[in-house]
Amino acid sequence: MGNSFICRTKKDTKDNGSRSKRMGRSQRKMLAEEELLHRQALSMALHQHQLSQRFDGSMSRRIGSTSSRRHSDPLANNEKKVLESLENIKFKKIILIHGEGFGAWCWYKTIAQLEEVGLLPTALDLTGSGIDLTDTNTVTTLAEYSKPLIQYLENLPKDEKVILVGHSSGGACLSYALEHFPEKISKAIFLCATMVSNGQRPFDVFAEELGSAERFMQESQFLIHGNGKDKPPTGFMFEKQLMKGLYFNQSPTKDVALAMVSMRPTPLGPIMEKLSLSTEKYGIGRRFYIQTLDDRALSPDVQEKLVRENPPEGVFKIKGSDHCPFFSKPQSLHKILIEIVQIP
């Protein structure tokens, strides 16, 4: 909100009356646009299972409806080149995997932007996340947690591949998929994510912020004991104020509000599981990493350490982004994803 306020005050004119009228119109327009985005996000959260069909069906209409506007846009030539380049891309399906506590709903801006350029995005709810009705307390392994992604890959036609994008702890699901279905994954993009090495747990990546796994299991006030206090914890969820500080320090207020009513507990078992990754399968995958440079949940130093210890094919950076660039820097994220898609 601070940036919006600064932008408006820069437009002050000599006539305070006309200024207030323009500001009134501008504010109403901005609120209307934000309200529209908010309704779209809520609709997506409620109807995620219809995403694939709806997007596939509306693809040509949306691209066609924007073509007339591009002629008058000074950036039309660049957009045309991007569209022409993407038309020749063989694998256009992009599977978006959310991080801990999130759901498919968090990708609503990214989906719309990728669809606009002719790509085929699909966001999945991991088991016990988003609108998936599974009790998170019953999800104990990474295989269970990743089941929607695994089922999607299993059902892909033999000659098809997809591009995976995994956010935060969803990166572990990407690694798991690379190990089990390397032939079905064109590229794997880790978005400020847990790109672990062989034998590492996803939780280990967050140790700098949360302490060791052992200490967290014993002392954390955010643990959930779904099977009773005398039994091992089954999940965790941060309280709202801490969540806002860790994840959303640069995100728009509307998106933070959406997250506060949509986030769910995270099953503990999957992020405490050590991954077994081989050079023959995981090692042949094409991995890319996107760093977020104003991230308080997974600091830039930790992200730098991840790419240093487990080097991907390419590294990209988003300045001014918190842990949720799909909210705080959607345009930057969109451009980087398109750039990676076009890498031969």
TrEMBL record:
Biased composition (Basic and acidic residues): 9-18
Segments for region (Disordered): 1-27, 54-74
InterPro entries membership: AB_hydrolase_1, AB_hydrolase_fold, MES/HNL
GO biological process assignments: jasmonic acid metabolic process; salicylic acid metabolic process
Entry-linked Pfam families: Abhydrolase_6
AB hydrolase-1 domain: residues covered: 94-331
Gene Ontology molecular function: any one: methyl jasmonate esterase activity
Alphabetical UniProt keywords: Hydrolase
Record's protein name: Methylesterase 14, chloroplastic
